[in-house]
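Incident log, structure service

09:12 report received: a user says their structure output differs between two submissions of the same chain.
09:20 pulled the input from the user's history:
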Amino acid sequence: MMPSYTSLFVAAMAAATTSAFTTNFPSTQISSSSSSSTALFMSSTPELTKQCFLDGKKIRGPITPLGNFVLVRTKDTLDATDGGILLPDQAKDRPTEGEVVAAGPGKLHPHTGVRITNPVTTGDSVLFGKFDGHDMNYNEEPVTMIRDDDVLLYYKGVRMTLANVIPCRDYVLVAIEKQKTETSSGIVVAETVMKDYNPCEGKVAKVGEGRMTSTGEFSTPPCKEGDFVKFRDYAGNEVKIEGKEYSLVRMVDILTSIPAP
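09:34 re-ran on a clean worker, output below:
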């Protein structure tokens, strides 16, 4: 029978041979290192005296992500009705919203050795793909370990607003144009026919910094706020901000951009 991920992780922590970490104790210091792809290590802080648990098993200190990993505490997504009542988002395929518990410093480019810094920090709220990352139970609380590449957008504050959201790196936030239910000849199309149609065009609402290159600089975005863009079918990630539908699209998936007048 194959051992579980948790038992392997705890065994590695106890042996101090396969995980990258530095742990300081009152009388002993143990150090070990391995490849930068390792997701976690144990932080050498005064918090070591606090009892920490991972998937129900005691570990010797708090978790700190390595490289471009980000530890996220998932939170409920809320929608507001016309009367201002907040309701949980019932859409099953929407991205997941969470709060950053801890973030690594960023990964090293494999060819140049340049540090590609992590775009988010502790306390930021992030939006990431529903099926991204690895779910864990840390100190009796559900958390998810993701990579910075999984982050769609981030913001500071309690709720997402158009004013505070920032598309992550090479993502573009596009305001989706409402689909017409009537053809040019006057034929009305039933809304049930259009419900599974994913719009692939709209007006650019916000633009990320760009993709970070091997030299640590950002590439130039192909569009700017106010431009009208078309992007590949099914390339967008749907998100609702302040009751309005948007789509988060990677810059490489934008097919054409029409400058704002």
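09:41 both user submissions now match this output. Likely a transient worker issue. Closing.
09:42 reviewer note: Residues 5-15 form the longest helix (11 residues). Helices lie at 5-15, 191-194.
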